[in-house]
Structures are given as structure tokens and as C-alpha cells.
Amino acid sequence: MTDTETSRPVGSILRDWRERRRLTQLVLSSQAGVSARHLSFIETGRARPTSAMIIRLSECLEVPLRQRNTMLLAGGHAPAYPQNRLPDAPMSAVNDAINRILDAHTPYPAVVVDRHWELVAGNPAVDVLTAGSAPHLLEPPVNVLRLSLHPDGMAPRIANLGQWRGHLLARLQREADVTADPDLAQLLDELRGYPGGEEADATDTAALLVPLRIRTDAAELSMFSTTTVFGTPRDVTLAEIAIESFYPSDSATAEFFRR
User: Which domain of life is it from (predicted)?
Assistant: First the structure.
């Protein structure tokens, strides 16, 4: 769903999300505590839902906050979730917390990305990963996935490119499916067109973690990553931010970063 969908009836948008989540009207109505008849009336436009009803249904459907605002506008209501930039005063505490997390993770790499995987912030150790990448890929806005898999980016130095590429594409596919974001779908198509390894390598179920193995002038580094998101966010920007932190997979990599 896109922000331009406010011109569509709210019932039609709700139906699309219900079908995307593969729920019947009976199941969704039971979860939301409304009658299946009333839900059917909402979807067909015979009943106008209140803002509270739209929020309740969107929570059951796990609709992202940005798209919940879209549905509220489509239903003739004001958005319920603010959207502040990180430098704005209401986000100062969050911005400080993010900077502390990045600093605390040093000497290992960590980045902050938005909903489209564009770089919001990073610590100095990220330079180890991006060294040698083409300047045009490092000009803002930097897309972290594009930088990783582009043949002029990190890709030539990734020793297990097929496995890492498959891992990233599978993750992006899941996010595109869950959010229905056309920009993510477009990014997925772009990245699939890049050369480099077989995606099937990422289906190795014997591996508990998919490592990133990247070559440097000094050594081949092996790392795994974790994703941190903020719990129960009520701001659109905050809900769409993730912190990707890399940790050494072996003692040699740990020693490299400590030096």
C-alpha cells in the first residue's frame, strides 16, 4: 500500500491487507471483536468505520504505522501516528540513544537504516566494510543493500557472495511482502539483476547463522549480524528504523577490529 491510496475507499484497502495476511472475514472479525457482517459492510463501503475501528483492525492485521495513517485518511480521519525526523526535538532522546548504541558497539561495525535500507547513521568501523567501493555508491542517500551487492560496491570482496546475497534477497523479499511497499519491490528487482553467486546457497539449513565473510588487505573477516528495533513505537519514523550490528564470528576477526 502506498501513501497515494488515500483516494481509495478505506474498506477496499482493509480488504487488501486482510487478503495479504491470508485471513478470512470470520477470523479477522473474531480477532477484532466485531461481527463478520459489520466487517463485510466496512469492506464493501456500506458502513463507515470510526478511527478506533480502523486502528483496531490494522493492529490485528499488523499493518505498519505509515499505512495505518493512510487508511485513517482514506476513512476521513486524522492520522493517529506522528512522523518526526530524528533531529527534531521530540526525537532527541531517541537520537541520543541511537548514537550511544553505535558508540558502544565500537570497535565492531554498526549502521542505522530506514524502511528502504537507506543509511541513517553508522560508526567508524563501517569504513572497514565499505573500503574500495565506488564513490557514487557512497554518496547520500546510501542504500546499504545496493552498496553490499553492487559489483562496484562490497560484492567483489565478499568471499561467500552467493550465500550472503541469497540471505539479503530473501530478507528483502519478506519485508516487501509484509509491508506491501512498492519501493522495496523495485529495489528487490534491481538487486536480483546484479551478478554474483547462486541464491540457492542461502538455503543451507545446516547453518544457524549466515556469516558475512569479507576480504581486506590484512585478512578475511567473518561476522554475523543482529537487528535491533524499538519496541512498541508510536512514531512512524521510529517504527521504520533498524540498527544492524555486526559481531566477529571468530577470534581472528575480533582481534582485527580490536587493533
Answer: Bacteria
